[in-house]
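Hi C.,

You asked whether I'd gotten around to modeling the 231-residue construct. I have! Everything is below, sequence then structure, no commentary in between.
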Amino acid sequence: MITVFTIATLTALATSGVNAHGTLAKPALKLTGTGYGGNFQSDIPMNALTPPAGEKFTNYPDYSKNAAAVSKALKASEYKSLRHFMYAKQDMSHGRFNMPKTAECGFTDPFSGAVQALPDKVEWWGGQMIHDGPCEIWCDDVVVLPFTENCRVTYSDGKFPYDKSKCQNKNRLTMYWLSTLMEWQVYIDCAKIGANAVAASNDTATIAAKAKNAPSSFGNTGSVGTVKPAW
């Protein structure tokens, strides 16, 4: 028998699942549709990196160990940044399909809508990220928040310090986040911050090559869980 309580419970569970991931709150985002923009756009197979000696990518339930292993493996790899890795290895046939998406910006549209003011800190909707994993922030092709091993832990309030001055006269602020659960989920949020913004691309080869030719995001990272900004 279906009761009002059962319906309410199922509704609550469905709602909590839908809002399980999140997006940037500041700067505000323009989504590609009317659905939920916080889903993961794609995933990356775990064999894309080699685990460090004596470590693994499938720790459970302490997913922070996965973030640490991924961080070490990524820095030892051919990839120059989390951005480069995500664009080069993501599988767009996976992930969610609730709204139109692009390889470059997921469910966000960095071209349409109003230009967003630069906040003092980049902020995550709802506060702390729900999953362990690395992140970094770029304005166009400039690193403004270097690679951070576990953004859920390092920025537990969901507020990210970044080099705001390097975003002046730029057109797009992009947050890259890789969730290191038992699968690697890709989240990319692109905000329009300039009048000369361009549309997001689905040309995976081109965006991966562009990321490869951009600066490394690893040069200013410190010890585990810390960041040493260059500014």
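If it helps when you're writing up: The chain has one domain: 43-213.

Thanks,
B.
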